[in-house]
Specification:
Elements lengths: L10 E5 L2 E9 L5 E8 L2 H13 L14 H12 L6 H19 L9 H13 L4 H20 L26 H10 L6 H9 L4 H5 L6 E4 L2 E6 L1 E6 L2 E6 L7 E4 L2 H20 L21 H14 L7 H14 L4 H8 L4 H8 L4 H15 L13
Antiparallel strand pairs: 1-2, 2-3, 4-5, 5-8, 6-7
Helix pairs in contact: 2-3, 3-4, 3-5, 4-5, 7-9, 7-11, 12-13
Length: 389
């Protein structure tokens, strides 16, 4: 016999191969209205009903009540989103809601939101000059928020999935030539952050990956020096702290060249001398890159130093991410395989490397063009082995 649920917590029953949950909730007109939830398993229905009963905001969603998109998104960013993504990503989502979504469609009732409303919002953002990448992030944020509403029975469908996706405008990433890269590393010799700048250019490390390095990440295995990349230094509303890398493939080990090993040893010696000279000021932290007080360097400091050194080298203003692009382009131009480069950079897949750096695969394109020319040449065997009879 099925155990009877406590009064006020709704009812659960099986219907046509699915599980149904029914909850009676008060609406703003003073009457009680029935909310029905549907799921594949009983446990899923229980989970969704618990969400409804825990969150008072849902009481405004039932029937023809007046909960707006802005009200729901405010609830989502405060109650549902925290803990499901990193704090930095949480802040990005909240800013996209505050700056772009709520000002345009926030006044629309959640249950009345249509795909056309989402499309018109994206069109309006385009008219205001908002980039296609930002518009795609806005759409993805709204899609994620409404997916939670749909999962918990607040909406029957996710209208974002039916809206028009912003067209992606691809801009070829800027990278230095080999000559420019040599000029940059030469100018970096006058910087206290020379090692960090060389790591950005030679290894293509991200800004947070560089500043998140600790001395324990430098390993000597069978006489080979390796650098373990497994964390990053980030700044968000909680301050400066270490965080996990975004994807599994971002965790990687990179071989260090003799030049980088030499810079590391020199940097370590200077750090130890500084700590011994000012023991009352310098607190040991284990980080490779620290301030004069021994604390981690802020991520914005590296950005400013890259700009300063590139200007001193007569190259104009460059960013840490452009040094990463330079590393990729130079490796591909030198004939390093795209698989090796993708692993070196910690890309989530080789498809990402191919998409953004196809312009650097000159040799591969030449080989492809020559192969097709030979295949279609009537005086050639096509370069394809002829099977023996």
């Amino acid at each position: 016999m099925t155990k009877r649920r406590t009064k006020g917590t709704g009812s659960i029953y099986e219907q046509h191969g699915h599980w149904m949950g029914a909850i009676s909730l008060p609406s703003k007109n003073g009457k009680r209205e029935r909310l029905y939830l549907k799921a594949a398993t009983r446990e899923e229905v229980v989970d969704r009903m618990g969400y409804v009963l825990r969150n008072s905001v849902v009481g405004s969603v039932v029937g023809t009540d007046t909960l707006t998109v802005a009200d729901y998104l405010n609830h989502w960013t405060r109650s549902d989103l925290p803990g499901t993504v990193s704090l930095r990503t949480e802040e990005i989502y909240a800013n996209l809601v505050r700056l772009y979504i709520s000002p345009i469609i926030g006044q629309i009732r959640l249950q009345k939101l249509q795909p056309a409303d989402v499309t018109l919002m994206l069109v309006e953002l385009s008219r205001r000059g908002i980039s296609s990448s930002t518009r795609r992030m806005v759409r993805a944020t709204l899609h994620r928020a409404l997916r939670v509403a749909q999962y918990n029975g607040l909406l029957n469908r996710n209208v974002v999935a039916l809206s028009i996706q912003p067209r992606s405008s691809f801009h070829e990433q800027r990278s230095m030539t080999r000559t420019q890269a040599i000029r940059f590393t030469t100018a970096a010799q006058n910087s206290k952050l020379e090692l960090a700048l060389v790591l950005a250019l030679s290894l293509g490390l991200r800004r947070g990956e560089i500043l998140g390095l600790t001395w324990s990440d430098v390993k000597i295995v069978d006489g080979v020096a390796m650098l373990k990349i497994h964390q990053q230094l980030v700044r968000d509303s909680s301050g400066l702290h270490l965080s996990e890398l975004k994807t599994r493939r971002s965790n990687r080990q990179l071989l260090l060249s003799p030049r980088i090993i030499g810079l590391l040893l020199h940097h370590r010696d200077e750090q130890l001398v500084e700590a011994a000279r000012y023991p009352q000021v310098v607190a040991p932290s284990g980080f490779v890159f620290t301030t004069s007080a021994g604390t981690p360097i802020d991520v914005s400091t590296l950005t400013k130093e890259v700009a300063t050194v590139s200007m001193d080298a007569g190259l104009g203003r460059w960013s840490p991410h452009e040094l990463r692009h330079t590393c990729t382009s130079l490796l591909l131009a030198a004939g390093v395989s795209i698989d090796e480069v993708s692993h070196h950079l910690g890309h989530s897949s080789t498809a990402i490397t191919s998409l953004f750096y196809s312009h650097s695969l000159i040799e591969s394109k030449v080989r492809t063009a020559r192969a097709m020319e030979q295949i279609l040449d009537p005086h050639s065997d096509g370069g394809v082995p002829i099977p023996m009879s």
